[in-house]
Amino acid sequence: MLQRELTREQAIAVAEQVLQHVEGTIIERGYSYFSDGVVFNTRVENNRTLCSDVQGSQVYHVRLDLEEVQGSSCTCPYTRLCKHIAATFFQMYSVFENPRHFLGKAQQPRRATFSPAMLIPNYRPAVSPPQGNETAPVQSGLTAASSVHDWWAFFESWTRNLLSAMESFRASSEIFSSYQNVLSVTAGWPTERAQLFHIHANLFHLQKLQQYVQTYRQSHWYPDLAQTAERLLEQLEGAIYFSDRQALWSKHRLALEETLTIIRRWKENDLSSLYWVYAYRLVWWSLLDAPEWIEQEKAELDETIASPNTSEAVLEKARLLRAHFSVMDRQDDLALAVWMPMRRLPLAFYLPYMKAFAREAQWQRFLDWTTALTGRIGQAEAQQYRFVLTVWREAMKQVGREAECGAMLKTFLPSSYPEYALYLYEEKQFKSWIDLQMSFRVPFADLSAVQLKEIEEADPALLYPYYVREVNRLIRERNRTAYKEAIKLLKRGRATYAKADQEADWERFVDRLSAKHNRLRAFQEELRRGNLNL
What we know:
By secondary structure, this protein is mainly α.
């Protein structure tokens, strides 16, 4: 059907936009969804929109704009081009071209393009249950006039059996479903009041998740539970970002004061988990930012730090939290001096601040933090690294240092390996390029044939160390397949040496290699077959 309604040229044009605007990890996840066969009801509307349904944690409805991919939409919570949109693209693309070939192209090193949309939390503001959720609205007895205290009392009642359900079934699904379903309570409420309710529902469920870990898992965070906590924090960041803070302060100050009381009590939590610390900082940064409240919180933390009776554990916690307010006071050096020695703090701990700096076009401040966090950026997981690198390039551009980006990529190794290797190749710094491949122990077979050919033509001697190392590595594998690959490489090396009129040197190397491994019968046989055993 799609073959009759669309053309191959349209599919290729859409593919070019997907490469430009969709993150590589999102494309990969979309391909997995497509491969799993969860895209259905695909049809074309108005000659420019490809619609589909995609089965994820629920059924999501996708509208892929075939003329302007950035105008596409999906009913999932992700605010940017998502994996469901990517899956729908693959469903269409597979009719005309091989989707695996496109995936391979998408996985090649490419420079991500900065967009202000990158800085917007992955959250879709709502005052009703998520679209596609068929669960009946929760009956609570709460009204828009109910207090925050009443909300938390209802949360406790609503979730009285939640921990046991989490133990009996999949914990992550149970708690996130509880969070999403309880949002239906606010149907018909004023928008700003519903927004604050959503923030409290999130805080409560994050607290409940931590309680579950401490009660049932002996303070051990399984990956699935950690991902759920991160997902709740992502929703919290979005809920606060999209909230109408002016309306909250003018119409609902009492509710904010109740929020203040709750968040201050969170200082009593221990540091066995950092997730509550993330939430604590988000709320203070963007919601409870009244000067008098901030000064009072700082005074309490300072008093705890100064007290000779404070235990080491409480002192560490107080110093960690107090540093957040140093950032709010633009005393970044003081905050980083506290946090950097705490090796348990990953790059994710710092990202909310860096996002805020970028949103406010504080580019030099962003760059100062990337300098301080160079090591953590280099060791970060792929998605976080790509985000920081893309914003970093934009920051360098904004302060007039864009020309320095390529050389500075070296400071972000090992994460920056693909981008730095591409930079070295494009700048024809071939020796440094070879050294980089060897230091990362990249197998010769994984190198680009096009790049190798250009280096061979420019300066074949640069590849000699690579040939020698790779041949020895293959021989050490002690199997016939590896020996055959070694022979192919020896032949290639001989041809390369011949171009430089140094074939005799290569023949001497082969002779020494043969003598060294004269007891490896299979290797000797392959040498003879390759006409290399002279």
